[in-house]
Structure formats: C-alpha cells, structure tokens
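Thread title: Can someone regenerate the structure for this chain?

I was given the following input by a collaborator and told the matching structure tokens would be attached. They weren't. Posting the sequence so someone can regenerate them.
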Amino acid sequence: MSCRRCFWLLLLWSACAGAALLEQEITISEAEVQAAVDRAGPLEKRYGGVLNVSLQQPPTITLGQPEGRARVAAHVDLLSPLIKQPLPLAVVATAGIRYDDLSKAFYLDNPVAESVSSPQLGRDGEPLARQAVTSLLGQYFRNRPVYVLREDASLRERAARWLLKSVRIESGRMVATLAPF
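Best answer:
Regenerated them for you:
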C-alpha cells in the first residue's frame, strides 16, 4: 500500500475515532418524565356501545424496569352494559421510547399490558381487558410526549434538537446521545 493511501486511511480512522469522542449525553430524569405524564390528564376510550375503558388518573412511570423499558402502573375503570358499576383494574404495562424529529419530543412507545387484575375480573375476561387496556395506553401515550427538547433550554438541549443520535432507557432516567455524525 502506498504511503499516500496509508495517510488517508489513518486520517479517516482518526476522524471516526474522534467522532466518538464528540458524543455527548443528555439525561432526562424519571421525575421529569413523571411530571409530563401528570400534566397529560385523563382519557376514556369507547368500543362501540359494548365497552368503555377510562384512565382517570395519570399512570406512574418507572424507567429501566425491566431493563431498557419503562414500567407503567395505572388504575383503569372498565364499564360495560353487562355490569352495573365500573370494574376497577390494576394494570402493569411496559413501554419503549421513541423520538419524533418533527415535534422534537420523546414518547413512550408501544405499551403492552403485562398484567390486569381485579378481584371481580374472571379469568375469561382477562384477555379482553388486557387488550382493551393496551389499546387505551397506546392511545394515551401516542400524542402525549414525556419530554420535549426546547429551543430556549440549555445549549446541550438546543444541540440535541439537531444532533440526536439515539435514545435509551436506563434505571431511573432516559439518555439521549448526541453526535455530529
């Protein structure tokens, strides 16, 4: 290999290695995420005239449990013409994270109800309740960001609006990685 080629390969390698050194991270705390969820308010979803599912209070979010995901704990009311009073359900779900470049916001993504429990809920009704709750949580988080990168924030946060490379969930926080390449 010629000396000139070695020089260019060495220059390219150092530029790539240097790019990793330029990576910066912004952390978003679990408390910041919970505050955004608390502001989101209630939601009710109707399935024809057969079933109503409502989330009257914001869910509780725990980041990093299970690893790389968010745990969502909520109390949901299920109402059907077949039952006279709302059926309260304790729900535990997990969700990932996604970043929307247009709105410069982070959203909990694809929540899945892992468990739905109530003393009055029979074993036969659990799959239907789990499906209804998963759909409700999906709709709840679809348009409610858990964090928005602001232009009037810190220099790092303004840079994240343009240089965001990836986002991940760790125990107690979300981490956004910034890189110029």
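Residues 9-14, 16-21 have pLDDT under 50 and may be disordered.
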